Amino acid sequence: MNRKSCTRLAASAILASACLAASAEIVNVSTANTTLLLDATDGAPLRFLYYGEKLPASDVTGVAESASTPLDAYPVYGMTALRETAMSVTHPDGNMTLDMAVTGVERKNTDNGEETVVKMTDKYYPFDINICYRTYKGSDVIETWAEAVNRGKAAVTLGEFASAYLPIRYGNVHMTSFYGAWGNESRVEEAPLVHGMKVIKNKDGVRNTHTAQPNVMFSLDGMPSENSGRTIGAALCYGGNYRLRVDTDESNFHHFFAGINEDNSAYKLAKGQTFTTPALALTYSDEGKGGVSRNFHRWARKYKIAHGEKLRKVLLNSWEGVYFDINEQGMADMMADIASMGGELFVMDDGWFGGKYKRNNDTCALGDWTVDTTKLPKGIGGLLDSAKKAGVKFGIWIEPEMTNSKSELYEQHPEYIIKPTNREPMHGRGGTQLVLDLANPKVQDIVFHIVDTLLTNYPEIDYIKWDANAPVMNHGSQYLTADNQSHLFIEYHRGLQKTLGRIRAKYPDVTIQACASGGGRANYGLLPWFDEIWVSDNTDALQRVYLQWGTSHFFPSVIMASHISAAPNHQTFRTIPLKYRIDVAMSGRLGMEIQPKNMTEDEKTLCKNAIEQYKSIRAVVQQGDIYRLLSPYDRKGAASMMYVSPEKDRAVYYWWKTETFVNQQLPRVPMAGLDPDKNYRVTELNRIDNRPLSYEGKIFSGRYLMANGLEMPLDHNVDHHKRNDYASRVLLLEQAD
Ligand code: DGJ
What we know:
Distance between the termini: 57 Å
Oligomer: single chain
Shape: globular
Number of helices: 14
Structural class: alpha+beta
Bound molecules: (2R,3S,4R,5S)-2-(hydroxymethyl)piperidine-3,4,5-triol
Number of strands: 36
Strand content: 25-35%
């Protein structure tokens, strides 16, 4: 087969390997609406050609044959030492260069899509790099990662080992990224890419999304816009330390690299070993940031989140209600209370365990996972009986990766913690918390057995809240050998993944929440084993509008645990009326984080109605397409978004006022995502007003709603003594014809 016909063949799909064996050329990794093009000519470096809007076959050839700037698809260090690179290696003889050439392309079908592997080998050393791509049926996300293969007789050292590189044409490109802190996670930051290097990183060791996220969007047409504009989204699927770099140099490109953070993590790759990087998930949409979010959400629900397409239960979590003050009657009362409000699950948080040391505060007992029978004389069995009686499911909190210096586990096994040799351990939370060394297979067993014991003894346990409240404070593994100490961060996460894999293999159905001092684990590296995340320890409804707004850029609402909590709020001390707290919580996976005993009957009734209404819209909220309409960051006095069912026959619209001034002028918010030719009946949910809205029960076309939206009154029409400075609305739109 000659070169021309080979290229023509490639235009329809990824090139068949028979053709490539003769003369590897254009690799076309396509999804329904996107195309990634590479030039994988045998004996030459792998070249990047194109990523973006789906190319018709006729354009594939044109694009391939007219590429003006040769861009490596995975730049390596050494032969051109001038630029940023994705991989650098020191060979056994001290040579620090790589010179890679394509040797072939392999393509195979997987259960869910296709995998393409471009194989490269060094021209001199026995060292290979495979660049891998995975597509998923019905999804516009492409995952890409690298494999470094040491075929030599001695170890090599990997200095850089990025998952992927993507060149982005220089122009008016803006980047959306996320920063924050505990209680203030997922803050959205949008800025033009300017010359120099922008680095987004994490070094926590255990959790990785409090201060930044390994997820970014690139808006190629100037200022980021929600529903229009060419936009690329990239999410590193990794739970450990990461580094994202965008280098804007003198070339025509912004050079984007993403992968494990190599700082203090040089990796010695023994002979015969393969190092596999985590995947970078990429998508492209011409529907702006919203299009990228929707692509990620659909892919995530179907392929990347445990039970992502299953509806979640409405729950009450005990933490803000009782903190460490756990006791049998108190738990039974909470179960009965949440059941009476229509909830389906009760989760007992921290404080239930401890033998020699009782977990009455955060200074002790992690690792000693035996029930504190002074608090719970009938143990977990007794709690399960109460749950059964109340008619709710039961869940439990654990923090299995951790111990305290005041614990029986640590007293018996000080060798299980992370700490450098010849040095005292540094402590985290409570002045005593220590991280267990998951690089150690014995520790992996311990963590597995914590869950295994609970679920074997009590198979009725429906839900686990898996917490992680400390970072790696000082570098050192008591398990890894002296020459492999720099593997600590990587081996910790391999150990964690292995353990989670074992747990999921034995307990595929249990719901597990990834909590890590709130939103420390919002990443696609861990979500395959977790059903949801605790978005933040901050439950203040106003700040949650911002927190959930940021989180929604990459993560679907089905994983966003969003709880109604007390007023004044325990983190901000702000007093927000219950209606607003409910309306915000109802935009995620609804739950409660409150002591129902302290609620009035009126408040309970409001929650009961809200839970009932939430159940009727749960499928749209948890599985629908998101459309962000008015950003709280725009400071227009309100924020608004909506979810639309895939069939576009139902939608839920949210509007929350974010500040209050008398006679303020708020924008009217056009809706999005509806079918212009369908008619929708509007019903207000969680209504507290004495008079219905003027458009209650009325029918409007999708076209009208998307052009004009509906007028939101500035406040609620309630009796004088019930007035306050907050207002919010939740509207259900149902197809009327
Ligand atoms: C931190 C979590 O984020 C909280 O929700 C709670 O579970 C506490 N830990 C318990 O110690």
